[in-house]
Amino acid sequence: MTSFFRPLAALLLAATTAFSAHAQNLPEAIRFGGFGQGFGQPYGLALLAVAQGKGFIAEEFKGAPVKLSFEYLTGTGPAINEAIANDRLDFAQYGSLPNIIGKAGGLPTRIVASYGYTTVFALSRKDLDVKSFKDLKGRKVAVAKGTVLHWALLKALQDSGLTLRDIQLVDLKTADQLAALTAGSVDAAVGSSSLLTLRDKGVGKVFYSSKELGAKASGFGAITVTEGFEKRYPEATQRVANALVKSAHWLSQEANREEAYRIWALSGVPVQAFKDDFDGVALKDVFNPRVDAFLLSQYDDAIEFTKDNKLIRNDIDVAKWAAPAYVETALKAQGLENFWPRRNAIVARH
To answer: pTM for the full model?
Structure first.
């Protein structure tokens, strides 16, 4: 091909690609975002990481000219809210507190699926006599503000008869928490299983884990879609939900557990941390993708708590926020209607 025709051929290809996507009412690109672990790796955790790593989302768009991109932000929930506000993401996997803060602040999102729940760990320096959250009074406690782990800390303090005024909160991302605890510049941290690396190095000791308490005491969140994307591309939204349900079903098979750990370990968190987090727990129970009464009541409860703690001022209509039909349609199409239970609400819903 001569140099004259190369640009023309490229233009024709681009035009054909755009026309094809338009003809199928599919977008030319879908941008996914999720929480990273702060280790500088372009990989994530939970349901979205499996949907990407196993190619379930790519499979849904196989043969269609749709470009898929995945971004895992080290700034986690607050950074994801900023990315949505700046129109950089279409779908996002992140925790309930930033979900709520974003929605209350006017971000146009809808809840498509649950991404599972996150075990909350609290770890103190090994040389300190800390056995519970009550022992944190007057101490420096690291947590990533605006995340679901921030919410978990506030709840734990409340349950222990303390308030935020009783501790010195230090806002640090995961990797910085590990460095601060190692250096002794903070006394304790509240986070995910990534904190367990310090226990394994003999730097810290775990004084709290929500593992034994299950979903009711753990961090939770959702995979959301922007209202604009959903309205313009309902078929693509359904295809993504199909892929998320396939991912959750794959995760639920015991034979896939070790491979799932290896996929998540690409984020920079050691495999051993996932073993400590999930061994002995049925992943089917953790990764129930349904947007059911249980999940919505968790959001109701978290919204009330967030308002009480003056983190938001506006109320949120959770029923309107939720879009459970996509997952339910996917479950029916894949013959999985009875694979996961429809869980009851943990508190009375409005």
So the answer is: 0.83
Alpha carbon distance 10, 159 (integer Å): 62
Asked whether the beta carbons of 69 and 61 are under 8 A apart, the reply is: no
How many angstroms separate the CA atoms of 30 and 28, rounded?
A: 7
Instruction: Count CB neighbours of 350 within 10 A.
Output: 12
Region of residue 146 (phi > 0: left; psi between -120 and 50: alpha; otherwise: beta): left
Q: Which residues pair with 110 in a beta bridge?
A: 225
pLDDT at residue 2 above 50?
Answer: no
pLDDT digits (tens, 9 = 90+) for 185-194: 999 999 888 8
Residue 148 contacts by C-beta under 8 Å, 6 or more apart in sequence?
Answer: 77, 94, 95, 96, 97, 98, 118, 219, 220, 221
Burial 187-220 (b: 16+ CB within 10 A, else e): bbbbbbbbbbbbbeeebbbebbbbbeeebebbbb
Q: How far apart are CA 346 and CA 343, in angstroms?
A: 9
Distance CA 286, CA 140 (A): 31
- In whole angstroms, give the CA distance from residue 239 to residue 224: 14
- Backbone phi, then psi, for 129, in 5-degree steps? -90, 75
Token look-up 């308030």 returns 163
Phi-psi sector, 280: left (phi>0), alpha (psi -120 to 50), beta? left
